[in-house]
Amino acid sequence: MIIYKKINDITQHLDNHRKEGHTIGFVPTMGALHNGHISLITASNIDNDLTVCSIFVNPTQFNNSEDFEKYPTTLDNDIDLLELNDCDILFLPSTDEIYPPNFIKQHYELGALADVLEGKYRPGHFQGVCMVVDKLISIIQCDTLYLGQKDYQQCLVISKLIELKGLNTFVKIMPTIREDNGLAMSSRNKRLQIGEFNNAATLYKTLSYLKNNIAPGDVNSIISEATNLLTNNGFIVDYIEVANEQLEIISNWDGKSKTICLIAASINNVRLIDNLILT
Ligand code: AMP
């Protein structure tokens, strides 16, 4: 695996591959890699001639400075994991490389999508995500971008960004990889004590409960049962919502259309998100 820290160097390398007609798959990450990230690397390796992973803890997407400061970094381990899983190139830029002093902030017109769920609880978060992904995809110019369903709203936001930019980058959304207890793998799980980690399985149990018990009609009573399940297990719940695939919130299910349930809840100040397709 080749590691690049400078935009000019990686651009030159990728240009040579593009001239050869090689396809490029790209997996953007914030590091502290786990099997969820690796599943994206594997998918890209299967589909493409070249796989590029980036590790960059993007300051502009953190609305909470403590969350940014406590974000885990495990670079040596990340490099080992990427090498072991045949990643071709790691892009490891500094903050100045991504946001030089002359960097001009844009506003991305994301519409209602960015105002609900994570957008509501983390103001400015998706603008920050778009800022970094816009920059990264302009550098990597990948054919396919690999994203995890765990961050379902982020997948829709990035798809919208690609549409706004008029790019023909293909977005592939890969399934959520889970721990044995059902907890979605996440870099933030590293901040959980063992008891909290075990308890955090309640998040997936709650989603499964909703999947098994959703019925046509008003969904509010099942949502309050789910909220109780989480609060009784020590969680502080930001939201539990049922929505359609475009993330329009549903309070009454017609019994036919596709639905997804999305949860954000904290345990001892570690904020976790997860989702499950219900129907
Ligand atoms: P992050 O490093 O958290 O920014 O995540 C980088 C990419 O990995 C994003 O597209 C995430 O959605 C994806 N990802 C994170 N956790 C998982 C998981 N448990 N399963 C699959 N993909 C994941």
How would you describe this structure to a colleague?
There is one protein chain. With 279 residues, the chain is an alpha/beta fold. It has two domains: 2-174, HUPs (Rossmann fold, 3-Layer(aba) Sandwich), CATH 3.40.50; 187-274, Pantoate-beta-alanine ligase, C-terminal domain (Pantoate--beta-alanine Ligase, Chain: A,domain 2, 2-Layer Sandwich), CATH 3.30.1300. Helix content is 39%, strand content 20%. The protein has eleven helices and eleven strands. The strands form three sheets. A six-stranded parallel sheet has the order 1-4-3-2-5-6, sandwiched between helices. α7 crosses α8 (152-165). The chain is globular and about 55 Å long. The N and C termini lie far apart (41 Å). Residues 29-30, 36-37, 39-40, 147-148, 150-151, 174, 176-177, 184-187 line the site of adenosine monophosphate (AMP).
Supply the key terms.
Pantoate--beta-alanine Ligase, Chain: A,domain 2; single chain; three-stranded antiparallel β-sheet; 279 residues; globular; Rossmann fold; six-stranded parallel β-sheet; 2 domains; binds adenosine monophosphate; alpha/beta
Class per helix and strand makeup: alpha/beta
SS field, number of helical segments: 11
Distance between the termini: 41 Å
What is the chain-wise order of helices and strands? EHEHEHHEHHHEHEHHEHEEEE
Shape: globular
Helix content: 25-40%
Strands of the biggest beta sheet: in what spatial order?
1-4-3-2-5-6
Number-wise, the strands total 11
**Assembly classification:** single chain
